[in-house]
Request: fold
Amino acid sequence: MRCRILGAPEQDGAGRLGCEMGPSALRTAGLVSALTELGHQVEDLGTVQPAAAQPIVHRNAALKKLPEIVAWTAAIAEAAYQASKDAMPIFLGGDHAISAGTLSGVARRAAETSQPLFVLWLDAHPDFHTLDTTTSGNLHGVPLAYASGLPGFDGFFPNLPVRVEPKRICTLGLRSVDAAERQALNEAGVTVHDMRAIDEHGIAPLLRAFLARVAQENGLLHVSLDVDFLDPSIAPAVGTTVPGGATLREAHLVMEMLSDSGLVTSLDLVELNPFLDERGRTATLMVDLTASLMGRRIMDRPTRSF
Reply:
């Protein structure tokens, strides 16, 4: 497969500094070599550069870094649209606010192919706040709501060329959802599988049913992998840790099933904060998971000595 890597070292949407080092850490952990060893053709497009932020005033005084996030979203959306032509883009964050841009860009590209875009959101949080409902003001909590076309972004965020149909979104691994997000998810019709559903049914049947829907509609699939989808005991390098996340084997199983499906057309790797990592273990795990998604099998997995 032809892959394009694009760094988006944006950290203005998170509550603490450090995510801007995420793309560098993923590259240092061997992302490019892992993909090339699997036979993929890899092109590293470098780093997105946003235009200067312009003043923006919003009635929600809690909002933080709104002008900066808007500038990043516009730049990332255009870069994602360009990178997704005849290749699979892999976007390296940065915090999850980058997905406002990546989803906008790949949805625009998908519309040109007349294929529906589906989204698998692997995260402890649904990031389904609007600019009006967020109380923390941290804008890594709004990208999925923006990309879904929820009201309240017009006149502030860039105009959305094509929205992602909420009924084609599956959130998997949720375990921290605010009341406003819960209501919005239900009203929009997003498929929600929290950790209780995973505990009760297992992660494979839930994912298998969603992938069957994507295949049935001949859809394209964007996967957005947040570090906090994983349990913090195996992935400590994230500023929004929530106990009880996916285990090592559950995470690899998800990636292996995605690989088997052949449906994934774009990927986000977000919220890696190397400042909080332990000897690069989280960055290495994210690279390993990407390799599983891109075709590495259990029999091919290397043994590491520390």
Notes: The chain has a mean pLDDT of 96. The longest strand covers residues 2-8. The longest helix spans residues 66-83.
